[in-house]
Each structure stands twice: as C-alpha cells, then as structure tokens.
Amino acid sequence: MIPFSDIPDMTTVQFDRFAKLIHERAGIHLKEHKITLLSNRIRKRLRTLNMKDYDEYYQFLQNDKGNEMVHFLEVVTTNESYFWRTTQNYDALKTHVLPEVLKQYRGQELKLWSAGCSTGEEPYNLAIELIESMRKVGFFNFRIVATDISTRVVQFAQEGRYTGRKIEKIPPEILKRYFKPLTDDPEVFEVRDDIKKKIEFRVENLFQSTPSGMHVIFCRNVMIYFKREEQKVLVDRFHRALLPGGYLFIGHAESLQMLNTDFRTISTPLGILYRKEG
Asked: ∠17-77-275 over CA atoms, to 5°?
C-alpha cells in the first residue's frame, strides 16, 4: 500500500475535474481553497484501492461499473453532526411553529423532512423534541422523512447508536429517557425502538428528492455548499414540498435574503423563520 504521506495534494487541474464531478453528481460546489481538504479525503480511496495517483482514480470513476461512485461521494460529502446542535431551532419549533401548525391542521398527522440528515442526529433530535412538546400542547401523531446522499451515513443513522462527542450535549434526563446503553458496550447509547419507528430514512439527492405534503422542513448547514442559483432551485423545491402555513428551518449561517423566494420571513427572539403563506 502506498504511504499516505507519499501522495501529494492534487493540482488545480485535477481539483477542477473532481470538483466538476462532485457538482454533477451531488450538486455541491467546492471552491479552490478546499483543494487540501479534497486531496486528504480522496487519498483515503487511493490507499484503499492501492492506486498511485488522482488521475488513475479519476479514470477508475469514469469507468466504474460497481459502487465506487457511492464510496467517492460518501468520502467527499460526509460532515460531522451531533445531538442538541443549535438548540434555538428546536426551541423555535416548539414555542412558535408547533402551536400554529397544529391549530391549522388540527387532527392531522404532522409530517417533517430532515433534508441532509447525515448520521441521523437531527431527525432523532426532532422526534424527541416533538414528543417532549406533547407535555404542553397535547398528543399528536407525526412522522419524519430523513434523507441524505450517502448510503453509509444513512445506514449508520438507521442503527441509531451513538457515543462520545455525538451525545455529550444531550441533557442527562433526555439521554436516560430516550436512549439505552448497549449491554456489551455501555459507552454506546442506542435510540429507543419506538423513536426509530417514527423516522423513515432514505438515500436521496436533495435535488431529486420527492417528499411532499410537509408541515416542517429542516435543512441546516447544507445550502452553504451550493451556488446561489442552486440554492434557489433547492429552496423552490422546499416551498413546493411544504403545505400552506408550513415552515423551513435553515442554518444560522444561511439566509434566503438574496434568493427572492416565495417564503415569508418571520423574525423571532429565537432566530429567523421562513413560512409558506396560505
């Protein structure tokens, strides 16, 4: 196997070829300052396949008849995720959005979409927060669709087993109530089975996903990887997927201000919300 350190960073020409491929397959736009990051991630596949350089790997991808394109996209798109990340979004969901949506769609099953769900922390976190909210707003049915382009992270999410940094911000009483430590490894905590059953995980490209009839969509820290025109396409898809009165949550570093969308912007003490009118 070729030593990791013996494989240099890719050239700008090589970077451009891979960046174009990533954009075509995943819609993600990588800027040139990401050249070292991309080099490091693709090195992992070079070592696994015992290939000598990036050009050989690129040609291998072009002629791929198996699952290497899946492995490639997983390596270059996977990002860190953890429970109780940006809790203002969940607080806004419980205090502002839920009472309004439940009143408008009284008696109906609440449908949510976790778009770009990564390793599953967000949809599980959503399910837990919804159940906890029933203490104040009363019982309601709900289901969550969770999608990601990576087969590997979706499989990880379906298992629902977490440890270390991924769970360190979970309040102790929540961890005890909704997770169970594994018998053979008590440092690993598994989400309760009844919580898992509330979530449908799918491997899908966001630009090809087809969920509809949604009341709430979470797509946080995902659009930062796309060009503005692609963000507009994606946001328009979210608008069509939402029912009238539904809400879109995006990351705090993201904004729809420059996209000229049909969403109404609502300012709250817990952050900016985006509502589909109707």
From this structure: 115
**265 in any annotated domain:** yes
Q: Tens digit of pLDDT for each residue in 187-244?
A: 999 999 999 999 999 999 888 888 899 999 999 888 777 778 888 999 999 999 999 9
Instruction: Specify whether 154 is located in the same domain as 269.
Output: yes
Q: Are residues 190 and 59 in the same domain?
A: no
In a domain, 171, yes or no: yes
Phi, psi angle pair for 163, to nearest 5°: -155, 175
Q: Are residues 57 and 120 in the same domain?
A: no
The predicted-structure confidence for 12-38, as pLDDT tens digits, reads as follows: 999 898 888 887 777 677 778 788 888
CA-to-CA dists, residue 273 to 41, 162, 255, 268, angstroms: 35, 30, 10, 7
Per-residue three-class SS string for the chain:
CCCHHHCCCCCHHHHHHHHHHHHHHHCCCCCHHHHHHHHHHHHHHHHHHCCCCHHHHHHHHHCCCCCHHHHHHHHHHCCCCCCCCCHHHHHHHHHHHHHHHHHHCCCCCEEEEEECCCCCHHHHHHHHHHHHHHHHHCCCCEEEEEEECCHHHHHHHHHCEECHHHCCCCCHHHHHHHEEECCCCCCCEEECHHHHCCEEEEECCCCCCCCCCEEEEEECCCHHHCCHHHHHHHHHHHHHHEEEEEEEEECCCCCCCCCCCCCEEEEECCEEEEECCC
Q: Are residues 50 and 135 in the same domain?
A: no
**217 shares its domain with 96:** yes
On whether both 107 and 228 belong to a single domain, the answer is yes
* Parent domain of 72: 4-77
Task: Give the model's pLDDT for residue 3.
Answer: 55
The amino acid sitting at 231 is Q
Say yes or no: 93 and 23 in one domain.
no
